[in-house]
């Protein structure tokens, strides 16, 4: 495959890749994702998941840009990779997804519900009685998620309930907690006692009605009996018994006020119960007095109408009973007044206790106000002490800072003094080194002037000689003479160009972006005649978009001269096709180039002199000995290095490493890509 076909293939692959990326980008949106806490401060170093997809890192700025499929927008769910955090809310608007994050107030416990034979129970409702009662439904695998408070202990089997099932026990496994349950039987056999009781109630004898003492038993007896079908006298007895039980229940409720007073009841409720009890007894006394007067009236009527028919013994017994009644009433009166007096004394003590409580509350209020005042004074004193301590602390820190600064200055002075002493001691050595460099520079200058004048004079003499020959030659020989004059002029021009490059090496300029593929394409056109004349097989290995920032003139000088040497010396080797290989890579912000040829190689004796000015390493060389000298000087100016790996009559490889700036190129390319994506959106 030729070079043009390879370039066309690479370009076609790049075009297809770009088309695929554009088609894929049509189904996605470039959005900005941000996360905040409840104080609206950005959250950093967390990862979020949208709709149960992969987690996206928000890096250290609390936000990032990410391509998200259209089907995931707006998000249906957002998860945080931190188990202690959860997404409180989120909002997607105008290409920005804002997520509000809060700390979890609960923890999630997965639990699997299984029968006793370890079969999962899907789609059942599980009720949990804990710090907060919750209901959950198991999924197809019988699993549900139980939310627990952070300080809540591990759940127990007794805290769960499932309709139609009895919870047996809670076990643990590698997958989590397992709740084992057992199905309840639908048909239950009534105990023999209930059957017997049911039969007894069904065969109840109405003559035993007086044995019923509560409405509950009354309902149990007569709920299966049709009251309307009973005889009239039995129906009256049933109604009378029902009214009696209702009045009994009301009396029990009324007399239960005092029983409501206990150590755990409130004082206000106790007083209300006592008041209700007193009013009830007042109404009861009025009712008893009325009933007692009615009964006395009936007895008087009986005595008035039939007292004369009573015998003496009956009259005596009746009189004794009346005396006894009078004595009992007198005792009741004494007890009533004693009780009334006791009640009044108790009420007085309650009132005094109440007033004592009020006084105590007033005293407590005064004491509380004094305590608050003392607390305020104490806080002011603490504030003053803290302020004084803070001032002294700042003063101590300031003094410590001054001391450290003085120490630092002292160390700097000692270091400067040592440096001055060292410089004084090495002054002669520095002067000697500068003198040596100056002598070397003068020697190079002398050599340069001598060789430059010699190399410039040689082609001029050649041109002059050819001109003289042309004056005495026939017209048929003139084309050959002109051709030689042109060749001599071209050599002279190449040498002058190289001499001009020396000035550019010492004062480089035009720091700009270099597209390596364009440089190589230009040089290949430059050497096209040489490549064609000698049938040189040249191959390149570098990325098509290889770009960096450097000095173009120096890069041109390095690549041009190394390729010129490779083409020339690979064509000197007889019996084999000349081959030249150029590789370029960016490795750790350095441009690394390797130029290899299969030429005559370099013998070890001349390798140390390759970089000298006007050094010609081969008798076959048609150059002037400036090529590798310019390469060495250019690499030295760029702060790089060059290595040689050679084997005589086999190969020669030059490896060049030059620091370049790729960060700026990457940043510009990234900004251009973002602009293109935004335009597509």
UniProtKB/TrEMBL annotation:
<dbReference type="InterPro" id="IPR036097">
    <property type="entry name" value="HisK_dim/P_sf"/>
</dbReference>
<dbReference type="Pfam" id="PF00512">
    <property type="entry name" value="HisKA"/>
</dbReference>
<keyword id="KW-0175">Coiled coil</keyword>
<dbReference type="InterPro" id="IPR036890">
    <property type="entry name" value="HATPase_C_sf"/>
</dbReference>
<feature type="coiled-coil region">
    <location>
        <begin position="406"/>
        <end position="433"/>
    </location>
</feature>
<keyword id="KW-1133">Transmembrane helix</keyword>
<keyword id="KW-0808">Transferase</keyword>
<dbReference type="GO" id="GO:0030295">
    <property type="term" value="F:protein kinase activator activity"/>
</dbReference>
<feature type="coiled-coil region">
    <location>
        <begin position="315"/>
        <end position="377"/>
    </location>
</feature>
<protein>
    <recommendedName>
        <fullName>histidine kinase</fullName>
        <ecNumber>2.7.13.3</ecNumber>
    </recommendedName>
</protein>
<keyword id="KW-0597">Phosphoprotein</keyword>
<dbReference type="Pfam" id="PF02518">
    <property type="entry name" value="HATPase_c"/>
</dbReference>
<feature type="domain" description="Histidine kinase">
    <location>
        <begin position="451"/>
        <end position="662"/>
    </location>
</feature>
<dbReference type="GO" id="GO:0000156">
    <property type="term" value="F:phosphorelay response regulator activity"/>
</dbReference>
<dbReference type="InterPro" id="IPR003594">
    <property type="entry name" value="HATPase_dom"/>
</dbReference>
<dbReference type="InterPro" id="IPR050351">
    <property type="entry name" value="BphY/WalK/GraS-like"/>
</dbReference>
<dbReference type="InterPro" id="IPR004358">
    <property type="entry name" value="Sig_transdc_His_kin-like_C"/>
</dbReference>
<dbReference type="GO" id="GO:0000155">
    <property type="term" value="F:phosphorelay sensor kinase activity"/>
</dbReference>
<keyword id="KW-0812">Transmembrane</keyword>
<dbReference type="InterPro" id="IPR003661">
    <property type="entry name" value="HisK_dim/P_dom"/>
</dbReference>
<feature type="transmembrane region" description="Helical">
    <location>
        <begin position="382"/>
        <end position="402"/>
    </location>
</feature>
<keyword id="KW-0418">Kinase</keyword>
<dbReference type="GO" id="GO:0007234">
    <property type="term" value="P:osmosensory signaling via phosphorelay pathway"/>
</dbReference>
<keyword id="KW-0472">Membrane</keyword>
<dbReference type="InterPro" id="IPR005467">
    <property type="entry name" value="His_kinase_dom"/>
</dbReference>
């Amino acid at each position: 495959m030729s070079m043009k076909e390879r370039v066309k293939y690479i370009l076609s692959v790049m075009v297809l890749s770009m088309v695929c990326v554009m088609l894929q980008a049509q189904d996605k949106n470039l959005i900005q994702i941000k996360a905040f806490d409840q104080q609206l401060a950005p959250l950093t170093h967390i990862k979020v998941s949208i709709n149960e997809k992969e987690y996206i890192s928000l890096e250290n700025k609390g936000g990032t840009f990410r391509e998200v499929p259209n089907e995931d927008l707006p998000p249906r769910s957002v998860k945080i990779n931190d188990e202690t955090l959860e997404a409180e809310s989120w909002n997607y608007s105008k290409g920005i997804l804002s997520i509000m994050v809060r700390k979890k107030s609960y923890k999630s416990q997965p639990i699997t519900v299984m029968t006793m034979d370890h079969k999962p129970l899907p789609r059942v409702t599980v009720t949990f009685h804990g710090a907060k009662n919750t209901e959950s439904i198991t999924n197809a695998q019988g699993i549900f998620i139980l939310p627990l408070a952070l300080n809540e202990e591990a759940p127990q089997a007794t805290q769960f309930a499932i309709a139609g099932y009895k919870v047996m026990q809670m076990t643990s496994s590698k997958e989590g907690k397992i709740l084992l349950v057992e199905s309840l039987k639908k048909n239950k056999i009534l105990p023999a006692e209930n059957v017997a009781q049911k039969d007894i109630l069904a065969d109840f004898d109405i003559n035993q009605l007086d044995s019923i003492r509560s409405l509950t038993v009354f309902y149990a007896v007569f709920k299966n009996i049709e009251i309307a079908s009973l005889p009239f006298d039995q129906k009256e007895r049933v109604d009378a018994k029902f009214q009696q039980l209702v009045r009994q229940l009301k009396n029990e409720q009324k007399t239960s006020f005092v029983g409501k007073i206990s150590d755990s009841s409130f004082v206000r409720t106790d007083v209300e119960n006592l008041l209700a009890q007193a009013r009830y007894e007042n109404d009861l006394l009025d009712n008893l007095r009325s009933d007692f007067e009615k009964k006395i009236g009936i007895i008087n009527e009986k005595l008035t109408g039939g007292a004369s028919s009573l015998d003496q013994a009956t009259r005596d017994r009746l009189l004794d009973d009346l005396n006894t009644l009078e004595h009992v009433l007198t005792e009741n009166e004494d007890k009533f007044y004693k009780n009334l007096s006791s009640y009044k004394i108790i009420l007085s003590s309650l009132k005094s206790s109440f007033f004592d409580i009020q006084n105590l509350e007033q005293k407590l209020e005064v004491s509380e106000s004094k305590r608050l005042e003392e607390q305020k004074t104490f806080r002011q004193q603490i504030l003053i002490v803290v302020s004084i301590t803070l001032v002294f602390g700042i003063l101590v820190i300031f003094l410590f800072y001054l001391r450290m600064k003085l120490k630092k200055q002292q160390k700097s002075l000692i270091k400067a003094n040592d440096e001055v002493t060292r410089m004084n001691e090495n002054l002669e050595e520095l002067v000697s080194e500068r003198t040596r460099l100056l002598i070397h520079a003068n020697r190079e200058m002398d050599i340069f002037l001598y060789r430059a004048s010699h190399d410039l004079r040689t082609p001029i003499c050649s041109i002059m000689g050819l001109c003289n020959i042309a004056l005495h030659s026939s017209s048929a020989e003139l084309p050959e003479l002109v051709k030689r004059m042109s060749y001599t002029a071209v050599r002279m021009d190449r040498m002058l160009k190289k001499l001009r490059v020396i000035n550019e090496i010492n004062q480089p300029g035009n720091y700009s972006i270099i597209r390596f593929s364009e440089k190589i394409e230009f040089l290949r056109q430059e050497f096209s005649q040489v490549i064609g004349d000698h049938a040189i097989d040249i191959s390149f290995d570098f990325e098509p978009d290889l770009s960096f920032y450097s000095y173009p003139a120096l890069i041109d000088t390095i690549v041009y001269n190394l390729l010129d040497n490779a083409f020339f010396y690979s064509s000197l080797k007889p019996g084999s096709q000349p081959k030249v290989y150029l590789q370029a890579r960016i490795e750790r912000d350095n441009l690394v180039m390797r130029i290899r040829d299969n030429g005559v190689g370099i013998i070890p004796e001349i390798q140390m002199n390759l970089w000298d000015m006007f050094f010609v390493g081969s008798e076959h060389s048609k150059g002037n000995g400036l090529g590798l000298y310019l390469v060495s000087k250019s690499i030295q100016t760029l702060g790089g290095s060059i290595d040689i790996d050679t084997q005589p009559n086999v190969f020669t490889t030059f490896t060049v490493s030059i620091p370049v700036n790729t960060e700026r190129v990457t940043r510009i390319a990234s900004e251009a890509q973002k602009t293109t994506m935004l335009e597509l959106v």
